[in-house]
Structure formats: C-alpha cells, structure tokens
Design brief:
- There is one protein chain.
- The chain is α+β, with helices and mostly antiparallel strands.
- It has a single domain, classed as Gcn5-related N-acetyltransferase (GNAT) (Aminopeptidase, 3-Layer(aba) Sandwich).
- About 20% of the residues lie in helices and about 20% in strands.
- The protein contains four helices and five strands.
- Strands 1-2-3-4-5 form a five-stranded mixed β-sheet, with helices on both faces.
- Helix 1 crosses helix 2.
- It binds coenzyme A.
Length: about 150
C-alpha cells in the first residue's frame, strides 16, 4: 500500500462520526462513550483524519483556544493499519496545523504511546505537583451505570 492511497485532513466534514464512535466506544479510555458525546466533542475540536480512500482509518482531535493552549485526545489508528507510519502522519498534521503554532502549553495523556509523542517534543510533566484535575475514568461504562446513576 503506497502513501498516496492515504489522505490526511483536518476538515471536519471529512470525519466519519460513526466510524470514530465505533472505535472510541471500545477504547480503553472512552469505553461505551455515547455517540452524542463524540459528536459534540468533534464539533468543538480540530479533528484530524487519515482516510484510506473513503475509509476513516485513523483519527485524533485537538481541543484548543487556538492561541495559548491545546490538548491532544482520542488518537488511534485502526489495528489493521498500524505500524506503517500513519500515527506519525497524523502527528505531523497536528504539529503543523497553522492554528496550533506558538502555544504556551500543548498537553496530552497516554498509557503506553509516549514514544510516539516524545519525537514531537512532548515530555513527562516537569512539575506534576502543580497540575490538578477532576478525572472520572470509566464514566461512560454501561456496566458501572455511572451516567444514569443506576
Ligand atoms: C499508538 C498508535 C496510534 C500508533 O499508531 P501507528 O500507526 O502504529 O504508529 P506509527 O506506525 O506511525 O509509528 C510511529 C512511531 O511511534 C512508535 N510507536 C507506535 N506505537 C507506540 C507505542 N504504543 N508506544 C511507543 N511507541 C510507539 C513507533 O515505533 C514509531 O516509531 P518509529 O518511527 O521510530 O518506528 C496505535 O498503536 C493505536 O491506535 N493504538 C491503540 C490506541 C492508542 O493507544 N492510542 C494512543 C492513545 S494516547
């Protein structure tokens, strides 16, 4: 498969929301995420897609004020397409996006893909004690019933 078969784009109209939702709802970080949440999240982010023909094979989105801060989220490459540089092509597009230049902070969290991001300048937190968060892991999981309170 040659590189030219793939298109990398930040066009929101290019996103196959059903495909992204189908992946994310099985991901370790957003298990069972509802479709309407994914729709809203994409609408309010800069979405990056890798398309193989018409097929959405990779995705990432950046939450940002387009001036000072950005947060990279929901990065994935479909399993059958891994190991051939598509995550790098996605990250090249993210880091080169004109609205994501000159930021004071660009942040992300990752369980095991730090090696991918390190090459783009991301480092572990220098001062973790200064960072605070409200974090609800597993909040979409249907077996926990956390969204409905049941
Ligand atoms: C992580 C993921 C996006 C990488 O996609 P990919 O297309 O296989 O990555 P690439 O082929 O572009 O590889 C890019 C580089 O990152 C490295 N890399 C890829 N996955 C990695 C991982 N999990 N940990 C460390 N390095 C990794 C590769 O070795 C490669 O380095 P190289 O250029 O020096 O060889 C993909 O494995 C994936 O979707 N995983 C499941 C979802 C996930 O964990 N997403 C990340 C959430 S933060």
């Amino acid at each position: 498969m040659s590189d030219d078969e793939f298109t990398v784009t930040s066009d929101p109209a290019a996103v196959d929301v059903d495909a992204v939702h189908a992946y994310l709802r099985t991901s370790y970080w957003a298990e069972d995420v509802p479709r309407d949440v994914v729709v809203r999240a994409i609408a309010n982010s800069i979405p990056f897609s890798v398309l193989h023909g018409q097929r959405q094979v990779a995705f990432a989105r950046v939450i940002t004020d387009r001036a000072t801060f950005a947060y990279l989220s929901d990065v994935y490459v479909l399993e059958a397409y891994r190991g051939r540089g598509l995550a790098r092509r996605l990250m090249d597009a993210v880091m080169g996006h004109p609205d994501l230049q000159g930021l004071r902070r660009f942040s992300l969290t990752t369980r095991d893909a730090a090696g991918l991001y390190r090459r783009y300048g991301f480092t572990p937190l220098a001062t973790p004690a200064r960072h605070m968060e409200i974090f609800r892991p597993g909040m979409y999981r249907q077996d926990l019933g956390s969204r409905t309170g049941t």
